[in-house]
């Protein structure tokens, strides 16, 4: 085990998430090559220096044979990762089914699947059974590796059943759970057939965290209305047992972005992009291609702006970078063709022989290209219909020290609560309002841009991912586990 500066053994933090932060490619029967993804959680947890971190999760590949499993586990161990092996049927029912077809849309206010969407993956009940089985498999792996004194941090809507499984295994285990999506109003949440069982399981954790105070409040009211438990300023109480519920807004590793902007290859990218779009203002959208991101609504608002402002038509370009995700879910395939159709129509309508108003890319960009794009952007357009936080808005702000561009941000993204004073907030469903905001942003005075940017930049550089992780983990570590309290009395 690692030691800290005073030579003491560091406490271990077991981070459990559906996906490990690696992508694994099989090279031979017993050999794998691994690529660690540098984004989000990984850089957040690099900041938590007083703990030795271990990752537990699914590697994203089906490995049916034992030789392959053993080889993968060995390769992952070098990266401090521990695999949970899920077979194809479980992935279909648990991941594609219950997680992405039931919980994801419900938590983003899109409601439960109707019959036709459900039919492709059988019933709620069989999906929920698979969800519980999968969560139990995660719990089995955690318990095999758990040592007394470890702190366990469970992530996201995939693992709502995990806190209970872990406490059943060992009630002394310190367990935290954090939700990266919104938690919806209890009026939406209570349509979920397995609503009580999931709430009870989450409440088995010692600390339950959300991005915003609103999500925490929605969760507490779901517990009071559905389970009849008591909501207190500290959290949720049932027969003297308190589960701490609080807001822990995530951030980004802003230094990673500001440092990247100084690299020669990023500056070359910046120069190329400036030349490419000389004489035009650049508007940017970067999203996973997901219905919650409001991409069709955004493009329609841009169309309305062009329609009403002919003088801008050859002076502005919208770059929409949309990385496809969950491509085997039919809803996502439908969204892709819908977006292509709208973009094609608008480019046909307003394009010329030499230029089109919308560049739409269906792919992800590497980190350096992304930083360069953020840096040359005049107006970022983020129109999520619902979004837990939205880190793209933070990344854009981090890269704008020179340009001081404008952020147009959906009021339904968690980030609206932290960047609201600097951004232009919009209701993404109101196409007219978004079109007007585009006009306002493009014409904004340098003074106003500077003032708005200062506010956002100060927030993004002080509320970092590292501070988020540290705050959550230290709050968790400071909780006195109920069982310990009882034994002391
Ligand atoms: P996401 O829905 O994935 O995350 P977001 O917070 O914006 O949304 O993070 C996306 C990340 O992927 C960003 O780091 C971004 O740079 C990257 N990305 C997106 N599109 C890309 C592209 N085309 N090319 C390259 N990179 C791209 C979920 C929740 C959010 C919450 C986060 C963290 O839905 O609301 O903020 O988790 O908790």
Automatic annotation (TrEMBL):
Transmembrane segments in this chain: where?
none
Provide one Gene Ontology biological process annotation: trehalose biosynthetic process
Q: Which residues of the full protein are shown?
A: 86 to 574 of 933
Instruction: Name the family the entry cites.
Output: In the C-terminal section; belongs to the trehalose phosphatase family.
Q: Which GO terms describe its cellular component?
A: cytosol
Q: Tell me where on the tree of life, at the top rank, the source sits.
A: Eukaryota
Task: State the organism named in the record.
Answer: Spirodela intermedia
User: Its catalytic activity?
Assistant: D-glucose 6-phosphate + UDP-alpha-D-glucose = alpha,alpha-trehalose 6-phosphate + UDP + H(+)
Q: Which UniProt keywords apply?
A: Glycosyltransferase, Transferase
Q: What is this protein called?
A: alpha,alpha-trehalose-phosphate synthase (UDP-forming)
E.C. code: 2.4.1.15
One GO molecular function term of this record is: alpha,alpha-trehalose-phosphate synthase (UDP-forming) activity
């Amino acid at each position: 085990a690692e030691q800290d500066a005073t030579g003491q053994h560091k406490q271990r933090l077991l981070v459990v998430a559906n996906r490990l932060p690696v992508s694994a490619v099989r090279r031979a029967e017993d050999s794998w090559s691994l690529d660690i993804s540098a984004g989000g959680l990984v850089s957040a947890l690099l900041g938590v220096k007083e703990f030795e971190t271990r990752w537990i999760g699914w590697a994203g590949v089906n490995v049916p044979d034992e030789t392959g499993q053993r080889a993968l586990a060995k390769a992952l161990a070098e990266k401090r990762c521990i695999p949970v092996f899920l077979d194809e049927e479980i992935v279909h029912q648990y991941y594609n089914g219950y997680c992405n077809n039931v919980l994801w849309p419900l938590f983003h206010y899109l409601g439960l699947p109707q019959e036709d969407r459900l039919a492709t993956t059988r019933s709620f009940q069989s999906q929920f059974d698979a969800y519980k089985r999968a969560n139990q498999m995660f719990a089995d792996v955690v318990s095999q590796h758990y040592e007394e004194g470890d702190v366990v941090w469970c992530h996201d809507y995939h693992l709502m059943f995990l806190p209970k499984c872990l406490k059943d295994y060992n009630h002394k285990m310190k367990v935290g759970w954090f939700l990266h999506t919104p938690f919806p109003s209890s009026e939406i949440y209570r349509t979920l057939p397995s609503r009580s069982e999931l709430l009870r399981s989450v409440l088995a954790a010692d600390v339950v965290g959300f991005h915003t105070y609103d999500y925490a409040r929605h969760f507490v009211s779901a517990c009071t209305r559905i389970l009849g438990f008591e909501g207190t300023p500290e959290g949720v109480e049932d027969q003297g047992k308190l589960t701490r519920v609080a807001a822990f807004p995530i951030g980004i590793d802003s230094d990673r972005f500001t440092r990247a902007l100084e690299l020669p290859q990023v500056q070359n990218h910046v120069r190329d992009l400036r030349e490419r779009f000389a004489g035009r203002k650049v508007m940017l959208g970067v999203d996973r291609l997901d219905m919650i991101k409001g991409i069709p609504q955004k493009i329609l608002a841009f169309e309305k702006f062009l329609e009403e402002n002919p003088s801008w038509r050859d002076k502005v370009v919208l770059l929409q970078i949309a990385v496809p995700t969950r491509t085997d879910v039919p809803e996502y395939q439908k969204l892709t063709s819908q977006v292509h159709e709208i973009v094609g129509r608008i480019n046909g309508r307003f394009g010329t022989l030499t230029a089109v108003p919308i560049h739409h890319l269906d792919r992800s960009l590497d980190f350096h290209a992304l930083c360069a794009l953020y840096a040359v952007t005049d107006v970022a357009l983020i129109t999520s219909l619902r979004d837990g936080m939205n880190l793209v808005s933070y990344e854009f702000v981090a890269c704008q020290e020179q340009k001081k561009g404008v952020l147009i941000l959906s009021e339904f993204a968690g980030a609206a609560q932290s960047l609201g004073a600097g951004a232009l907030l919009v209701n993404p469903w109101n196409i007219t309002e978004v079109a007007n905001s585009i006009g306002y942003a493009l014409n904004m005075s340098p003074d106003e841009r500077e003032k708005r940017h200062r506010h956002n930049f100060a927030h993004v550089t002080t509320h970092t991912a590292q501070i988020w992780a540290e705050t959550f983990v230290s709050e968790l570590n400071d909780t006195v586990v109920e069982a310990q309290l009882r034994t002391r009395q």
